Prior knowledge:
Elements: E1 2-10, H1 14-21, E2 36-40, E3 45-49, E4 55-64, E5 69-76, E6 81-93, E7 96-110, H2 115-138
Antiparallel strand pairs: 1-7, 2-3, 3-4, 4-5, 5-6, 6-7
Amino acid sequence: MASTSVSRVVPASPQEAWNLIGGFDALPDWLPYIPESTALEGGRVRRLTNPDGDVIIERLVDFNEAERHYSYAILEAPFPVGGYVSTLRVHTVPGRDDIAEVQWSGRFNPKGATEQEVVDLFTGIYADGLDALHQTLAA
């Protein structure tokens, strides 16, 4: 099983960052790669569409409001992986209440691609996503 993780300090308190990203159906609010999200099954599943029209279906597998994190599994996507589970987490920065560290991590089994290709793919997706989050919070 392969994995990757990207962290970024953002210009918002942990609660402000969580308020933006903590809703499982909130990706279009901060992630340009996902302009559309539809909540299904009472909000436990999200159907995402990217700008190319590709569909990604993900299931919420863990949610912790108090600790500010959630995990999800990909059910259907145009990515060369199986067994994908990812976590978005907001951390406090010791001694600071005006910034937060956001971590996006995932583990997965490559399918039809090398481990390095898939690690590079998701490292790029996470880094671009956290850059977009930073821009949204800085605006």
